[in-house]
Amino acid sequence: MEIILALAIGVMAASGVWLLLRPRSFQLIIGLLLLSYAVNLFIFSMGRLTVDQPPLILDAAVDLVQYADPVPQALVLTAIVIGFATTALYLVVLLGARGLTGTDHVDGKEADK
After folding, report:
1. What is the pTM (predicted TM-score) of this model?
2. pLDDT at 14 over 90
3. 9 partner at 20 to 30 Å CA-CA among 20, 35, 90, 102?
4. In the predicted structure, residue 81 carries a pLDDT above the cut 90
5. Which of 73, 11, 70 is nearest to 43 (CA)?
6. Which of 37, 35, 66 is nearest to 50 (CA)?
7. Nearest 5°: phi and psi at 50?
8. What is the DSSP string of 8-71?
9. Contact of 44 with 73, CB cutoff 8 Å
10. Does the pLDDT at position 22 exceed 80?
11. First-to-last C-alpha distance (Å) of the chain
12. Which residues contact 97 (CB under 8 A, 6 or more apart)?
């Protein structure tokens, strides 16, 4: 399972970087989203996720190895909210730039047809 998760994170990160290098604004936004999703999955997987375990065990003698770390989960939730806000900001800025320049290329040049 770890190899599948690592491959998924690697493919998402590589696809995101490749799309960031493209000159079109839509591809740039999708690349940023894919890269942020890859980072979120990486941080989330570092939290020692446990399956079919309660989040809190109210015992006097508790082994901390059985707990899932709540900090990565809180970081990923915060990153999702911030990512949504920055994506909305990117869309507004890029749509405004398209209205001013008449093209959605980042460098402002028309693509060869």
Report:
1. 0.70
2. yes
3. 90
4. yes
5. 73
6. 66
7. -120, 145
8. HHHHHHHHHHHHHTSSBHHHHHHHHHHHHHHHHHHHHHTT---SS--S----SS--GGGSPPHH
9. yes
10. yes
11. 44
12. 25
